[in-house]
Amino acid sequence: MTAFDLEAFARLQARPSEIFRRPVRPLPPPPPIRYSAAPCVPLPIGRPRTLAAVRYPRARPAAPTGLDGLADLLTSALGFQRYEPANNYNAHRAYPSAQSLFPVEAFVVRGPRAWHYDAARHALRPVGETADGDPAGAGAMIAVLGRPGQLPDYYRELRWALTLCEAGHAVQATAAVAQALGYAAGVHTDFDDAALLSAIGAGPADGWLPAALIGPLSTPPADSSTRIGSAPSGGVPLPDDTVLAEDPVLHADRLAWPASHSLGSDDPGSDPRPKAGSDAASEMGDETGASWDHVLFTRSAGHSRGGFTASPATLPRQALTSALAACRHAARQDWSGLGVRLCLAVERVEALADGLYAWSPEAGDLTLLAPGAHLGAVQSAYLYPSTVMRVDTCNVAIMFLADYPSLIGSHGARGLRLSQLAVGALAQAAGLAMAAHGAFLRPARSFDPDRLGELADAKDGETVAYLALCGQARLDDLLLDLRV
Ligand SMILES: Cc1cc2nc3c(=O)[nH]c(=O)nc-3n(C[C@H](O)[C@H](O)[C@H](O)COP(=O)(O)O)c2cc1C
């Protein structure tokens, strides 16, 4: 197993054009979700829309309780929002998904009991050994896991990146909505993978990629007996080399397992991270005119009709300021110490000169690297031609840079997993802020990281891990409301 070269995997997954040149290798189908025989828990319908009364980025002072609160959180953050008849890809949630294939699932976990959030059935379905219990009881956590087998085989190693980036979006959406609802929930990434898999009834060779836990969702301190950490650590053995040899995606992620700790030590009472409420909201900037409900419903990667062009209009400066504030807040709260930094190509943004700018969550404002228009250079690194995707009609291209070798050096294999979750989460934070200002954010992996790296003046070891194109819609589309 140690012969597996993590740095080589990191290099390859970053380069879609190299991946797509290699033959497609059929991979095992995704594992089934192992439902138990216990009855499913229907989520309430016709609830009052709590987040319609909360302006982005503010938060409610106290969270709703019981199953109503859990339903608010799950459906707002992770449920279906809309269907766009003119779009090639449907449906749409509060977070993006490559081709809307949704290779990410969420579970409510309370100690050894777990329920799958089945968005289509609007229900919580018991999994594994779960026979009874209240999913909304004390200490409930939301677990987000990737299922790369949901993506087509031709993505090969890119399945790992697409799944984990999307998981980062889903984790951030869940944490942001939990905090807006008034829960004192944090994001936990250093938990015991084996205990989580055991709770959802998954086998060691089932192709899940554990991403993060969000919680606890109860306002009072959680009862430690309900934590995942109370399940025996290492209860699920690692799959053997034969299984892993078949699939480099699983191999890369399974190397991340031994670095994990038990969640039992994660005492929410002593969590140093900022909590929900006025402090967090003020770091994210001024109240907007948009409600959270509206932001989650309209969050978009930009409407496309076969091809994609944005409006040539100027982007209000406040949209970019708000996106960077949200990004900084998310980075400081949940994704610090990973060294992810941003380079932005900016054109037609109010009160900001066109140019290439550097930005990092730790440093202050934007630093001008080179004046002038650079979206044309982003277009030339994009894998679709301008006849399919007009990058230069956008206002901002955000390039997320990560240093894979040093992440592996400092955090082991876990660092590689965290890098993908972090860039997805930061892009999600920025995308929700853009939606509050009527703009879209389209995340992408279909680019040449070496050409973009030259543009972004990437340092030795750094790779452009993710790209987010931001702009304003050119067309008004029919949106069918799928909210329950
Ligand atoms: C990890 C990830 C990678 C993506 N890569 C691309 C891409 O390379 N090119 C692209 O046009 N869109 C890309 N998207 C955006 C999706 O196509 C978009 O989210 C999807 O069509 C659903 O639209 P919506 O975000 O408006 O709901 C990506 C999304 C995610 C989460």
**Domain module count:** 2
**Percent of residues in beta strands:** 15-25%
- Roughly what percent helix? 25-40%
CATH architecture field of the largest domain:
3-Layer(aba) Sandwich
**What is the name of the CATH superfamily of the largest domain?**
NADH Oxidase
Rg (CA only): 21 Å
* H-E order: HHEHEEEEEEHEHEHHHHHEEEHEHHEHEE
Terminus-to-terminus distance? 46 Å
How many E-type strands? 16
Q: What would a concise description of this structure say?
A:
Helices cover about 30% and strands about 15% of the residues. It is α+β, with helices and mostly antiparallel strands and about 475 residues long.
Question: Please, could you describe this protein's structure?
Answer:
This protein has 484 residues and is of the alpha+beta class. It has two domains: 3-275, NADH Oxidase, CATH 3.40.109.10; 279-481, NADH Oxidase (3-Layer(aba) Sandwich). It is 30% helix and 17% strand. The protein has 14 helices and 16 strands. It has helices spanning 6-13, 16-21, 66-78, 158-181, 193-199, 241-245, 248-254, 278-283, 292-298, 317-334, 375-381, 404-411, 413-436, 449-455; strands at 41-42, 80-83, 92-93, 104-110, 113-118, 123-127, 141-146, 186-188, 209-215, 341-346, 355-359, 367-371, 396-403, 440-444, 462-471, 480-481. The strands form three sheets. Strands 1-6-5-4-7-9-8 form a seven-stranded antiparallel beta sheet, with helices on both faces. A six-stranded antiparallel beta sheet has the order 12-11-10-13-15-14, sandwiched between helices. Strands 3-2-16 form a three-stranded antiparallel beta sheet. Strand 2 (80-83) and strand 3 (92-93) form a beta hairpin. The longest helix is centred in the middle third of the chain and has 24 residues, at 158-181. The chain is globular. Bound molecules: flavin mononucleotide. Flavin mononucleotide is lined by residues 89, 92, 96-100, 162, 165-166, 169, 300-301, 442-446.
